[in-house]
Please model this.
Amino acid sequence: MTQATPSGAVAGLRVELAGLAARHPAARGDAAPALKPLSLTIGPGEQVAVIGPSGAGKTTLLHAVACALKPAAGGIALDGVDPWALPVRALQRLRGRLFLAPQTPPLPPRQRVVTALLAARLPRLGLARSLRSLLYPDDIGGAWAALARFALADKLWERVDRLSGGERQRVGLARALLSPASLWLVDEPLSALDPTRARQAVDTLTREAAARGVTLVTTLHQTDVATRFARVIGLRDGELAFDLPGAEVTPARLASLYAQHEHELVAAPPAPPDEVAAPAVTMVCR
Amino acid sequence: MSAVALPRPELRDPAWARRVFGASVAAVLLVPLLVATEFRPWVLVEPDNLKVTLRFLGDFLPPKVDPEFLALVAREAWRTVAIATAGIALALVLAIPLTLASSAALSVSALAGRMHALPFALRQSVRGLLIVLRSVPELVWALVFVRVVGLGPTAGVLAIALTYSGMLGKVYGEILESGEAHPATALLRNGAGRLQAFFYGLLPTNAAELTSYTVYRWECAIRSSAVLGFVGAGGLGMQMDMSMKMFNGSEVSTMLLAFIFLVWLADLASAALRRALG
Model:
């Protein structure tokens, strides 16, 4: 079986936040930032779960770390480098070293799974090779191996819009295994998965991240899954509520983190939209 | 009307007044436009004019079908298709790079907040170039090129290429910016290049619509090459111009039938391509 990353072990990226505050790009300038000044360090190869009620700033934190959001205040350093001091080209190269998996998997509906997966390799492939890969897939074995880890090997040649919502989400996660990144930022990886699949998916992600030495930061809605992480960061109203080893996150702490949002804590993960209808193709003639 | 009890204020559609106002403004604005265009459709049905019209149309029947003429129509129809196709192909060569340069969906600096000033200025100037290209009618381009390269299809091809590159570039850009941007943004955010993001994110998302629009424009180019023929740019249009000058209605109607056939073919091709890409 082909190893999913040919590079072997990649050194994980170190993330340092110094008083980092961020607001949603659509927010008004005078609105309170979704993420209030936050300072923390995530070491290379560390695995961190971020939990908190809706609107706590989890996704904003992830986007800020992913250089997808310019800090409103404070600073960020990835491996000691301030990304926003870099010229655009160098910033884009740095972005190639991180992998942001948004909550809704960003897969073109009419693309085949194999192509959607190999797209994760783009930062490493040159333009010529990535175009050739559109004619004949560049590393079929690698894509197959990544899918197999998420029990989807039979979907390799399927079109994305033939997959269920849960399958799409797992394809989105399998992309991480193919990317040359050394920092994985995963947003709500389990929102469309049933409990069994969710456990398998998290196990695969953490195992693969550990095997590669990749730094993993994931936001989670499922507190029982999150507490199995070595480090859990609790966010509430954009502020750090706690930053503890998973084992020390007691039910009492969870209760206070989710106070007034108890339904999110007690209830199972939000109803999985398992059969997400492919968006209808609108044909417009102008 | 006043007998009907008005519903409570909160149950009235708040958008209603705005809609009525908008529709009235549109109607008021339309009147001067009709005056300016001397729009008097009733002159069409005045007996004198009706007689002239009917005589002209009566000339069209029956279409001329002798084999020699049909062969000529087929040859010229083929040339028309060739002019339209070559024109569109050249237009694509110009339009695709301009689209890629002007599309904000491929902006790296806009990934986090606002686009930087320099790329913004570049995109705006490419847009300006597209406006210039498409605002000069292909007829004017054809008149220019007929003087440069002489009578014949080359002038038609060049004229179509220039005007249509402006149209294609504009609408391609709009399709790319209005379609689902998520896949391409995600690729850019993970460090992919602009062209890579285009081929792996934007193109698969928008391929069907881009193809459909291109085939529709090809169909327009066939029609447009007929008009260009009237100024000497070759094809069916040139033949039609000659037949009209000779008051030979039956030849004109045969050629109109040939046009209908070509447009029907374009329609079939578009439907087949959309099915294949959908």
Notes: The CA atoms of residues 179 and 206 of chain B lie 7 Å apart. DSSP finds ten helices and no strands in chain B. Chain B touches chain A at residues 108-109, 111-113, 116, 171, 174-175, 180, 182-183, 185-193, 195-197, 199-201, 204-205, 207-209, 212-213, 216, 274, 277-278 (CB under 8 Å).
